[in-house]
Amino acid sequence: MSHPLFDITGRTALVTGSSRGIGLALARGLAEAGCTVVLNGRDGERLAEAARKLPGKVHTAVFDVTDGPSVAAGIKDVEERVGPLDILVNNAGMQLRAPLLEFTDSDWHRVLDTNLTSAFLVGREAARYMTARGHGKIVNICSLQSEVVRPGIAPYAATKGALKMLTKGMCADWGPSGVQVNGLGPGYIETELTQALVDDEEFSAWVRRRTPAGRWGRTEDLVGGVLFLASPAADFVSGQILYVDGGMTSVL
Ligand code: NDP
Description:
GO terms for molecular function: oxidoreductase activity. Residues 11-177 form the Ketoreductase domain. The protein is of the alpha/beta class and 252 residues long. The protein is 42% helix and 15% strand. It has one domain (7-245): 3-Layer(aba) Sandwich (Rossmann fold). A seven-stranded parallel β-sheet has the order 3-2-1-4-5-6-7, sandwiched between helices. It is globular, with a radius of gyration of 17 Å. NADPH dihydro-nicotinamide-adenine-dinucleotide phosphate binds at residues 16-23, 40-43, 46, 64-66, 91-94, 114, 141, 143, 186, 188-189, 191-194.
């Protein structure tokens, strides 16, 4: 029997950017743990198809996490249609790779809006309800690039570094109202976002060499960390970033 501290049966969880990849795997993990899960993305059909493949009570909420009014309406709709939100996973994100000298203004704003502003917007709207109720768990999906950076990825790393500090700020502001906010920092995980890197044999071999675990991460590798941070076992854990990276950020 599992320990009651890890029991999250019956909680309602929203995972942003869960039409595929890491978000979908995290949503599946939360559903398997007994949560009512709300999938989010911008494509309703894709979300509905993803929802059909998950067990338990699964809902969809179509909204763009970069658009303030849509986010506010989306969270209100989830609260009214599905129920009080207990768990929010801010996962939606994107990556654009280019040397900084070639990075355009509009690409800079797209990366910032999708990876950082989104967590502020969705976190703020969800926290309005969570703080009023006196409990809630928020997990912001950061990155090993919250800590370290490689050439050609500076804007992405800047958003993930800032997301780390936003996590700590949310912890400071909402902790007194019973809301714990933590980050989870994946290492290199095989998804659509990293497909070009996986296909690049030289880069792929570098990842395997640089990772003490000796392999790329799988989306399922991240589930345990999120379940822990969403559970009562983490009631006194807030403002932390849990790196799930096969050890990569710890070694030179
Ligand atoms: P994918 O590109 O596979 O998935 C991204 C998801 O985000 C999709 O479901 C997409 O849905 C959604 N999304 C993107 N923009 C928006 C938006 N404006 N509004 C709503 N949803 C949006 O990425 P991953 O699964 O690989 O990454 C997920 C998170 O994990 C990201 O934050 C990423 O930075 C982080 N991460 C990933 C790593 C990796 O190695 N893969 C490593 C470290 C961190 P749709 O397009 O249908 O709207």
